[in-house]
Amino acid sequence: MSHATETTIAAPRTGRIDPKYTRSKGGKGNFEMLAWLFMRLSGVVLVVLIFGHLISNLLVGEGIAGVDFGFVAGKWADPMWQFWDLLLLWLAMLHGTNGMRTIINDYAHKDRVRFWLSMILYVATAAIIILGTLVIFTFEPCMVDASGQLLKDVPAFCHG
């Protein structure tokens, strides 16, 4: 004779979670919901920014063969393109960082490992955003030598 034993499975969301899977809540509040919403909205904006970037750089003019120092200098002489590329940089980095943060939270089970991976991610993100922003706004296509004369390989618009 076999005895049938009944196994009871707790209903979802009853709060019975294996302790090894619990993490300190730490007052996250609506942060995760806002991060989820940011991913959706920034993704839509990034698609527009990326296709605009690709079309202007690869399909208009000479295509990839025309992308050189002078091309970038000419684009960044226009504040609209500076803003476009800045928004693309910031949104791409923040979108990617949020995705990596989610992966770290999902797969790093130890608090200490999760903390250090997150810190490395945040420092790298801040460095790239700061350096990229500096490049966009301090880019000087019309370079001069010590005597104040234009260097010989500067774009044509520097001579005008």
UniProtKB/TrEMBL annotation:
TM spans (from-to): 33-56, 76-94, 115-139
Gene Ontology MF annotations: metal ion binding
Gene Ontology CC terms, in alphabetical order: membrane
Keyword DNA repair: no
Subcellular location: Membrane
InterPro entries to which the protein is assigned, alphabetical: SQR/QFR_C/D (IPR034804), SuccDH_FuR_B_TM-su (IPR000701)
Keywords of this entry: Heme, Iron, Membrane, Metal-binding, Transmembrane, Transmembrane helix
Main subcellular localisation: membrane
Pfam families in the cross-refs: Sdh_cyt
Protein name per UniProt: Succinate dehydrogenase / fumarate reductase membrane anchor subunit
Organism of provenance: Micrococcus cohnii
